[in-house]
Amino acid sequence: MKGRWAARLALLAGAAALVVLVLFAGLASLLLMAVGWAGLVATGAGVWWMLTHTGWLRALAALLVVGAPLAVLFLYSSAGLLWVVLLSAALWALAVAAGRAALADGDARGMPERRTARPRRPFLIMNPRSGGGKVGRFDLAERARKLGAEVYVLDPDRPRDVAELARQAVRDGADLLGVAGGDGTQALVAAVAVEHGLPFLVISAGTRNHFAMDLGLDRKDPATCLDALTDGVELRVDLGYLHAGGPPERTPGRVFVNSASFGVYAEVVQSPAYRDDKVRTTLELLPDLLSHDSGARLTVRAGSVTLDGPQAVLVSNNPYQRGDTAGLGRRERLDSGELGVLGVEVTGAADAADLLVRGGQGRGLTELSIRELVVDADAPEIPVGVDGEALTLATPVHCRIAPRALRVRVPRHRPGVPRSAPPMDWRRVRTMALTMGRAAAGHRSG
Predict the structure, then answer these.
(1) Which of 194, 240, 350, 408 is surrounded by the fewest CB atoms within 10 Å?
(2) Which pLDDT score, from 0 to 100, does residue 281 have?
(3) Which residues does 155 contact at the CB level (< 8 Å), separation at least 6?
């Protein structure tokens, strides 16, 4: 019912947006739309030139990025039609929001969970530096010990192999492994849990906690994650694997719980100067990386699709939602059994403008869902960002997904995964609004 009325509101608001333009601007409405599109194209081209040039050319491009939208607003205002454009834009935004809400209505199915016995010998690894000191601030080690867990707090001055710590705990009889730390550490210990078929506990004590967010855990209070030790349920989630230098059957795999990034981002974060001055280092390196004057040239083979020379490739453990800004970087499910692949290949200002105007439909953007793929390069090794860790891997890099390989124990009562609305699809919205209406009318007449 809610979906039907949201779809009708979307159609009504969309029609009103067009009516306002035509009614108050007349034929000038066509000129208004042309000026707006021209402003977007100029802004997109300016962004590309700003990223791929240095010196005075970058300065001029920055002026274009700022000046193009201001010039469009000035022209609208001078014609006395600024209020028409703003009202029409507001109605259109309402139409899109209502349409996406209609498409999302009724699709609230989460990952299946099951009750399991309480662990008797849980073993937890905690990083006191992670998340700015959340382990100490929330007294996680002492709380876990009171619940019967054995806790190993890492010493920042004496690095340890967390995977080996986990394996030793298994040899000593641990029946659950867990981590309070960043996603990179989570991935290393999760791999050991999979090796031994043990459940895994995620404690959201990292900085960003992407994995914890997509499991529906409380990221503000990591202590609530410990409730899973006494009142928990189990989820079965997928894991991503990277096999460097050869196929999976010949090379050991590196687990990732979130994503592996290839190309520009991975190259930038491995620069020695990046840690001291992130913005300056990025701006200095981007021109050569985007134009392929430096860095490895990538080739991606994903089934029948081949990407030749993309500047950036993101391979994720399950596809990320890209329906809206809030949904960027969020996965509503971790058990789809597919990798998400996002490739960006921008060859010039025209492609950059097309991406800005058309968004996810731009010709420079490739989005796939697939079980496995290969990332190769014209270099024997390439930098890769794996769950926030900067690594260097031998090529080719084989990426695959292991469906529902990891048993994750989570609290029975938890915030849940925030839902993001799907991308707008006017055809589906129209069908929902009209077909449901006809069905309801037919039911009443019968």
Answers:
(1) 350
(2) 78
(3) none
The answer, as to whether pTM is greater than 0.85, is no
The model's confidence at residue 235, banded by pLDDT at 50, 70 and 90, is very high
Whether the Cβ atoms of residue 179 and residue 202 lie closer than 8 Å to each other:
yes
Which sign does the torsion angle of CA 21, 27, 33, 36 carry?
negative
Other C-beta atoms within 10 Å of 186: how many?
Answer: 30
Q: Strand, coil or helix: what is 262?
A: strand
Q: What's the rounded Cα separation, in Å, for the pair 29 and 79?
A: 11
Give me the pLDDT at residue 316, please: 95
Q: What tokens were used for 290?
A: 């985007």
Q: What's the CA gap between 339 and 336, in Å, rounded?
A: 8
Contacts of 299 (CB under 8 A, 6+ apart): 306, 307, 308, 309, 375, 376, 377
- The mean pLDDT value for 139-143 works out to 96
Q: How far is CA 187 from CA 6, 238, 379, in A?
A: 41, 12, 27
Q: How far is Cα of residue 56 from the mean position of the Cα atoms in its chain?
A: 34
Q: What is the DSSP string of 143-201?
A: HHHHTT-EEEE--TTS---HHHHHHHHHHTT-SEEEEES-HHHHHHHHHHHHHHT-EEE
Looking at the DSSP bridge assignments, the partners of residue 384 are 262, 391
Q: Are strands 381-386 and 150-153 parallel, antiparallel or unpaired?
A: unpaired
Extract the tokens encoding 284. 């200095």
Which are the contacts of 178, defined by CB distance < 8 A and separation ≥ 6? 122, 123, 124, 125, 149, 189, 200, 201, 202, 203
Peptide bond into 287 cis (omega under 30): no
Rounded (to 5) percent helix, strand, coil in the chain: 45, 25, 30
Encoded tokens for 130: 């992670």
Tell me the helices (H) and strands (E) count for the chain, helix number first. Answer: 13, 17
Mean per-residue pLDDT over the chain, rounded: 86
pLDDT exceeds 80 at position 349: no
CA-CA-CA-CA dihedral for 177, 182, 185, 190, to nearest 10: 40
pLDDT at 21 over 90: no
Asked if 313 contacts 262 with a C-beta cutoff of 8 angstroms, the reply is yes
State how far the Cα of 61 lies from the Cα of 42, in Å rounded to an integer.
10
Q: Stretch 16-22: mean pLDDT, rounded?
A: 86
How far apart are alpha carbons 75 and 272 in whole angstroms?
46
Tell me how far apart the alpha carbons of residues 282 and 290 are, in angstroms, rounded to a whole number.
11
